[in-house]
Amino acid sequence: MSLREIPDLKARNPAAGARIIVVSNRLPLTLKRTEQGWATARSSGGLASAMNPLLGKTGGEWIGWAGDGGGKHSEQRQAILSDWARADHCFAVDLPRDVAAGFYEGYANQTLWPVFHNFPTQLKFDTKYWESYVEANRIFCEAVVNRYRPNDLIWVHDYHLMVLPQMLRERLPDAAVGFFLHIPFPSSEIFPVLPRREELLQGLLGADLLAFQTHSHLQQFRAALLRVLGMESKIGEVALGSRPVRLEALPIGIAPGKYAGLLNGDMKTAKQYADWQQRYRGRKVLLAVDRLDYTKGVPERLRAYAHLLRSSPELKERVILIQIAVPTRERIATYRELRTEVNRLVGEINGQLGTPGWTPLIYINRSIERSGLVALYKLADVAWVGSLRDGMNLVAKEYVACKPDGDGVLVLSEFAGAAAEMGEALLINPYDEERTAATINRALAMDEQERYQRMTALHDRVVRNDVFHWGERFVASLEDAVSARGRYIDTQPRRLQPGEIRAAYLRAARRLVVLDYDGTLAPFTKRPQQAVPAKVVLELLTALASDPKNLLAVMSGRSAENLERWFGAIPRLCLVAEHGAELKSPAASTWEPLLPQAPADWKPTVMPILEHFVDRTPGSFVEEKKYALVWHYRMADPEFGEWLANELVSMLEAMLAETELRAFRGEKIVEVRPVWANKGEAIQRLLGDYPDPDFILAAGDGRTDEDLFERAPSYAWTVHVGPGPTRASFVVTDLQVLRGVLESLATSRTAGLTVSCIS
Ligand code: ADQ
């Protein structure tokens, strides 16, 4: 997107009663085939509870898949869909049968779902899956574009629609697009396994706001950006050239009032509770509620339960586990295999460990009504959430919401997102059967006071951070992200006008000029030593340095020895080497370090790693400087080089986290050096020695120059050379343009006199 197009984005005013368009794979309404034909079934899930008030308040709409193949459009079916649109503002998207299969059972649930839940061995991929996924997202995009009105806020949900944000950005460049990921984001070790990972990340970056269930999922997303796209980000933001993408952790909640309502005044719930209580009188009740998905850890739980019963004979006939497992995605073989395995385990436990009067495991393999669920939550002494990996896990929160009097214990997998905010639960590693069994034992034996303390703290938090609060925070954050575009555009650099800077230069009595070398004064070459300064550059620097009103500094990543060799003969020139680690002022004859300390003895640890990368990458090499080690890969195959550079930085980041060293990406280099050795510190030092200049020019092209731009005083002329995002106030297209500007400054001494005479 060009800069000229940006003001459209800025003109947007999201605060003026914006409608919300919710886009999710499924609508809160589904088509059900009954004996009388098609009928509507309503979902009472948390998402519907959260979205409905927001939609009601803003007159918004919901777009989602009707859920069936669509193919034969019976009149009755069409009439129902029209009814949904009219009465419920729900707009059904029809997906052709083959697209739906490749999209839903294919890429979404056999490729993305396993990878995002750290089960790469379950991954299945077919190019057709991907094509269907893209096609389904495209059909959703069409539906959104058709319903969209200026100033609407578009809220896209979950892993089914990860390329939709970018599609929307292309069709509706100034629309406000937010995305929430309900499932976890995988670690940067696992994410790269995903086929079409680059397209997926690019697809997400079309949004203004990307929100995750936990901070750790957010961090993992950032690590994936770095590793897969080589894209750096801040903790809450990715800066694209033309706009920012905000990043947030916004854990989803539930609607606690709904549970309180059923607990307090619903006859059906009361009756079911009384029945269950009667049936299991005198026994402790453990409860587990899951979709029958391999990520939920059902077999692991059953094995831990068998272990518990075998190792604690005193529990015989005194405890039961009620496992509710809703069938799900049964067209996928893995899910059918899981059902078979669970059935076998259920048979084994009841057959081997039960007695004539005691069935230790009650297995309910179907969906049950909310009233029945609430009755069970109320009944259960312990809720056992054993997800092997889970975005959040709402069952944990629903159970807690049903314990307003503080009785009951939550046992929670540390791998569920809920664990990050439910610290008073007893945490388990569901893969460790023995310890899990011990924790369940502890939960069963916990005294009343401890139960009360833990449960009331959990309950208060679940009530406070409900799903309405979550929805409002998301919308507020999206509105904020969109208005930040305006501020972002205001801080975007302007094209440098040679006449303007020349006039300011001429007016000044005391000037500081700081110039980077490679990419700024000289073009990049295959080998660093080939970038010898041209005669014109030496003459230009000599002329600028000789002006008594100027302090000129060449500030480069190169070594002191290198700078000395090329520029040592120019009088009155200040040299700054290794990005600011060492400095030689015009009057001095020796170099001095920026910080008075000897280079630490870290190179022998880092060198073998870089050498290993040299070994893997033909054409790359390591440069050793006094304070830094640099891996250069300009001569390597470009794609392979970028890929390895991302790998290297990710690896070094973890390794150097506790040290003063950092790994920095540069123009076809990865450099390891102390954090304090940077151009921002160096310009501060120059300003200390040469205070209060009334004109400052700082120019550079690379990432290390961003430190310089950030720390330069606000009145400085900071100039970025070439394309790409920058903090500088001005840009020039290339180094030729900058050279032209510098030449006009260098030759302005006489011209300056003329100007002053005239004025
Ligand atoms: P799910 O994987 O579906 O959701 P979860 O958070 O546990 O997982 O939600 C399940 C919902 O289904 C709960 O509301 C529960 O009450 C209900 N449910 C489960 N079994 C049932 C049964 N037998 N009968 C009736 N209802 C049943 C995805 C992510 C989660 C994330 C949610 C919300 O995988 O990690 O918490 O979205 O963001």
Structural features, described:
This protein has a 9-stranded mixed sheet, with helices on both faces. Helices cover 45% and strands 18% of the residues. It has 759 residues and is an alpha/beta fold. The longest helix is centred in the middle third of the chain and has 24 residues, at 467-490. Adenosine-5'-diphosphate-glucose (ADQ) binds at residues 45-46, 182-183, 252, 289-291, 324, 326, 367-368, 373, 390-395, 398. Adenosine-5'-diphosphate-glucose is lined by residues 45-46, 182-183, 252, 289-291, 324, 326, 367-368, 373, 390-395, 398.
Strand order of the largest sheet: 17-29-28-27-18-19-20-21-22
Q: What proportion of the residues form beta strands (DSSP E)?
A: 15-25%
Q: Work out the radius of gyration.
A: 32 Å
Protein structure class: alpha/beta
Helix content: 40-55%
Structure ligands:
adenosine-5'-diphosphate-glucose
Mean pLDDT level: 91
**Ends apart, CA distance between termini:** 44 Å
Q: Give the overall shape.
A: elongated
How many β-strands, per DSSP?
29
Biggest sheet, in brief?
9 strands, mixed
Give the uncertain stretches in residue-range form: 1-16, 750-759
Number of alpha- plus pi-helical segments: 26
